[in-house]
Amino acid sequence: MATGSAAPVFALFSSILATSARSPPLLSYSPESLAIASSNPSRPSQQLRNPIARRRDFLAGIAFASVLWKGPSVSEAKEVEVGSYLPPAPSNPSFVVFKATAKDTPALRAGNVQPYEFILPPTWKQTRVANILSGNYCQPKCAEPWVEVKFEDENQGKVQVVASPLIRLTNKPNATIEDIGSPEKVIASLGPFVTGNTYDSDELLETSVEKNGNQTYYNYVLETPFASTGSHNLAKATAKGNTVILFVASASDKQWASSQKTLKAMLDSFQV
Questions:
Q1: From the CB of residue 30, how many other CB atoms can be counted at a distance below 10 Å?
Q2: What is the DSSP string of 67-89?
Q3: What pLDDT digit, counting tens, does each position of 31-66 carry?
Q4: Alpha-carbon distance 49 to 37, whole Å?
Q5: Which of 134, 153, 172, 186 could form a disulfide with 124 if both were Cys (CB 3.0 to 4.6 A apart)?
Q6: DSSP code of residue 105
Q7: Which helix (DSSP H) or strand (DSSP E) does residue 184 occupy?
Q8: Chain centroid offset of residue 16 CA
Q9: For the whole model, what pTM was predicted?
Q10: CB-count exposure of residue 248 (10 Å: 0-12, 13-18, 19+)
Q11: CA nearest 203: which of 179, 220, 186, 228?
């Protein structure tokens, strides 16, 4: 992506350099021409004005090129298989482990989300989260849920981490997931962020509660024939600090047949 976008910038830069090279250097003018210019400061000589203007244009061109030539930001996805840069998962070497840090998302940098981790197959790729969905524009105080990270594989499905401000679900500060309510109540509020559009309670097939130390997680199995994320969705929710974190694994009917065990392993591994 970066290579394609760089070509016109380098062409512009080269053109500016070539124009500058054809111009006489600023210090090459004779003392006579300098005397003429100083004798009539209100009308500088054409000889002096043009080189100055050319250099001004040259510097402006460099500034413009620097704006266009931007490398990918740290929040942009790596368009390569995650196995090329993530370490093997200690619990299962056939997976790699993603541990989110402050450099990964705006919310982590703002301290609105606690670090989280999960495993995924090494052949998956991280996909870019649109700025309007990333919460970048509203940190550190977002009123609506946002997408933290997304990964996918065209043959197996996709996963994403969604964060929701705690205040959206309860007025109690630093509430646990149990403080918010039952698994059914939580998914009723967050269901549209699982499906990508709407949520119907009839789509909920199974719920369970998981304890990991002091942290409680609600697990969900959903069959969602009209969901934009896929007809099969697994979700896991917990609350920590000022946010509720939701991990979602999605697949189409075709993907689900061969990848449901993989998606379930990814869901089980998620922790905050």
A1: 9
A2: HH--PPPTTSPPSSBGGGTSPEE
A3: 344 343 444 444 444 444 455 555 555 444 434 433
A4: 10
A5: 153
A6: -
A7: helix 183-195
A8: 35
A9: 0.72
A10: buried
A11: 220
